[in-house]
Design a protein that fits this description.
alpha/beta; Leucine Aminopeptidase, subunit E, domain 1; Aminopeptidase; nine-stranded mixed beta sheet; six-stranded mixed beta sheet; about 20% strand
């Protein structure tokens, strides 16, 4: 963490303490100069002509003002253009950038005057969520992963005080944000953890330790149990590693009668060397994050338990290391999955879909109302959609619409790719039911089509390829330094909508 944060809800009245800062937003309009002058007059501060001219320039959008005479000691002024470039992520991204910039400024408190919701209601579903995006930004901007730094900086305390006319609404937004982002933190910590420490069984241990705190039942199928259940796909991928594979099954059941029963399945490859189809070194550098799908599933369940959502969730995470050894599965092998279907191995680096075969079949056996899976499955999806967009694959229109809407709202955006039956012909095998790799073209789609073979056709199902947005990228202030936890906020919103 950058700071030990204390986020508070207050009304419009502000009482500044020593070493305080104030954040104020201005809507860019013909009146902004008059409003700026009035604001400075109310604080009894003087704004120089150069500073005023600079802030009002059409190309400028912010001003940092240091006071020598009184409190607040620093003013952060931000100009907002409400135009075609404005997004629902504006405030989240702004605060995520502001928080780390406050280090070494030795502030005790930051006061934020929230803008009026009516000016932004076309971009946010509710007033509560409008406010929530700002709280989320502060929390996301406070995230760091420095567990392995030998010299750590002292973490200073910092009060973040939000001022709004509706204090009850504000307090509710703070509570929701903290519960959701705490779970994003949990997921990010797992994904950023080096593979040398986060082995399959260690992932299972951390899941059990964390989720049991919130009443979630966690079972771990060890190698012996996987063999008993004939989960040969998981066993094949994990066979060459000194760290044995396992499968994590987390079951959240609300106290009240659940309105839905949903299965969430996440790829949990804690490290992927590519196996015998070995990756180049550059391709291995981010492979500690190949379990991001599993981390997302665990984070979503943690959030659901914290928010006490009336939905039953079964989380399934097959956890393996894809390594090289005398027990490696090989190109040309034919493997029978737990469903009884066989697949031909064309490439051992297409291992994520292999372990998900057993996991999706197990999820189908639990008779959920729907299944959603998450996987850093293909580089092809990142090539197609860029690093900040996940690929959505489903034949269910309702699932597609609802997930896409939640993605737009939370700014964890997804894009639906074609999933026509003709793509299935690209992964035919001459010697097995299906091949684990198709041709070069449409690689993300054919990977999804492979997964489709192991899902009960009667159950609505969606596959999210999160290979791009789960890894750190430069598109926002809260994704550029550490792997992101993409999907927790998106699916939490989706679940809330399902049961509201």
């Amino acid at each position: 963490m950058n700071f030990k944060l204390n986020i508070k809800a207050e009304t419009d009245r502000i009482n500044f303490g020593d070493s305080s800062a104030l954040v104020k937003f201005f809507i860019d309009s013909s009146k902004v100069g008059t409003l700026l002058d009035g604001f400075y007059k109310s604080l009894n501060f003087s704004l120089s002509k150069i500073q005023r001219k600079s802030f009002l320039d059409k190309k400028a959008d912010e001003l940092v003002y240091y006071s020598e005479k009184g409190e607040p000691s620093i003013l952060f002024l931000k100009k907002i253009k409400i135009d075609e470039d404005f997004t629902p992520d504006f405030f989240r991204n702004y605060f995520a950038g502001l928080v780390p910039s406050l280090k070494k400024k030795h502030l005790n408190s930051v006061h934020v005057i929230l803008p009026v919701y009516s000016r932004f209601k076309d971009y946010f579903e509710t007033e509560t969520y409008f406010v929530q995006t700002m709280i989320e930004g502060v929390l996301l901007g406070n995230y760091t992963f420095d567990n392995y730094k030998s010299e750590k900086e002292k973490i200073e305390k910092l009060d973040f005080v939000f001022h709004y006319s509706d204090k009850k609404l504000l307090a509710n937004a703070i509570d929701n944000s903290q519960k959701i982002i705490d779970s994003v933190y949990f997921t990010r910590d797992l994904v950023n953890e080096p593979a040398i420490t986060l082995t399959p069984m260690e992932l299972a241990s951390r899941a059990k330790k964390e989720l049991k705190r919130f009443g979630v039942a966690v079972k771990v199928f060890d190698k012996k149990e996987l063999e008993r259940r004939k989960m040969n796909a998981i066993l094949a991928v994990g066979g060459a590693s000194a760290n044995p594979p396992c499968m994590i099954v987390a079951h959240y059941k609300p106290k009240l009668k659940p309105k839905r029963k949903i299965a969430l399945v996440g790829k949990g490859v804690t490290y992927d060397s590519g196996g015998l189809s070995i990756k180049p070194t550059a391709g291995m550098l981010e492979m500690k994050a190949d379990m991001a799908g599993g981390g997302v599933v665990l984070g979503i369940i943690r959030t659901a338990a914290l928010l006490k959502l009336p939905v039953e969730i079964i989380g399934v995470v097959p956890a393996v290391e894809n390594m090289i050894g005398s027990n490696s599965f090989k190109p040309g092998d034919v493997i029978k999955a737990s469903s009884g279907k066989t697949f031909e191995v064309k490439d051992t680096d297409a291992e994520g879909r292999v372990v998900l075969a057993d996991a999706l079949h197990f999820a189908s056996q639990q008779n959920p109302d729907e299944i959603i899976d998450f996987a850093t499955l293909t580089g092809a999806c990142a090539v197609a959609l860029g690093l900040f967009t996940a690929g959505l694959f489903t034949s269910n229109e309702k699932l597609a619409e609802d997930l896409t809407n939640s993605g737009s709202k939370t700014f964890e955006r997804i894009w639906r790719l074609p999933f026509w039956k003709e793509f299935s012909s690209l992964i035919k095998s001459d010697i097995a039911d299906v091949s684990n790799l198709g041709p070069r073209w449409g690689g993300a789609i054919t990977a999804g089509k492979f997964l489709e073979h192991f899902v009960d056709k009667k159950i609505p199902w969606a596959h999210l390829d999160i290979a791009g947005p789960s890894i750190k990228h430069e598109s926002t202030n809260y994704t550029k330094n550490f792997d992101t936890g993409f999907g927790v906020r998106l699916v939490t919103d989706y679940l809330i909508n399902k049961v509201s």
